[in-house]
Design a protein that fits this description.
The protein is mainly α. The protein has eight helices and no strands.
Length: about 230
């Protein structure tokens, strides 16, 4: 049981590291730089705070690398509970979603280059460059939405594993499933039914926070003894 608790805490600390860094690139930087339907203003912000966009790119790359180690830790933790679900956890949470996010950072790099003053782009008028920079930031946002589909999907086997484990409170597994469904609903409305997204995004955003309790449980308590 000590080994299980140690493995659970290791996963929790990695999970906590993701929570502590992911918001920089996924929330703070877009909010600070993106001006809705205004390409010149957005490009001006990028030029004025180039370091901020670079920090956002670094944040995304960093927390996705940590994500790989988190999923491996969770696989070792839950392999004895249900190997098939544990494998599905790794496939959805690392093998699919991580490459999407890492490749998606190229959109931010393109936006950064287009908003800059590179000499090889001098032949293209500035308004066109600003519009293209804005377009690549929009593509990055949609890339995150696609990745969020798999952020939701990997929480489903994770929740089932928690429920079946016996060494983590079942309610945390239920909360993970709720959070996973919220990610899926939010992403679906954003991509397929954008006209209705404002009606659901607020509720979905709150429900996505149901993922957070498991982070602190694993980091602080790790695992409890299975009932006999």
């Amino acid at each position: 049981m000590d080994a299980v608790k140690q493995q659970a805490r290791k996963a929790g600390l990695l999970y906590l590291l993701i929570v502590a860094t992911a918001w920089i690139g996924l929330l703070y930087v877009p909010d600070a730089l993106y001006v809705t339907d205004n390409a010149p203003a957005t490009a001006d912000r990028i030029r004025a705070s180039e370091w901020l966009l670079r920090a956002g790119i670094a944040s995304e790359i960093f927390h996705q690398i940590v994500q790989i180690f988190l999923l491996l830790a969770l696989y070792r933790l839950f392999e004895s509970v249900d190997k098939t679900l544990a494998q599905l956890l790794v496939i959805l949470g690392a093998l699919i979603s991580v490459p999407i996010v890492l490749i998606n950072t190229l959109n931010e790099i393109a936006a950064l280059m287009l908003a800059g003053n590179s000499s090889f782009l001098a032949a293209i008028p500035r308004p066109e460059l600003d519009a293209l920079s804005y377009l690549f930031l929009k593509l990055h946002s949609r890339g995150i939405t696609i990745a969020a589909i798999f952020w939701g999907l990997w929480l489903l086997p994770f929740g089932l594993l928690v429920i079946r484990s016996g060494f983590i409170p079942r309610v945390l597994g239920i909360l993970l499933i709720i959070a996973g469904c919220a990610y899926l609903v939010d992403s679906t409305f954003t991509l397929v039914l954008p006209q209705y997204r404002p009606a659901v995004s607020g509720i979905a955003g709150v429900l996505e926070l149901a993922e957070i309790p498991i982070v602190f449980w694993l980091a602080i308590w790790g695992a409890r003894r299975r009932p006999v």
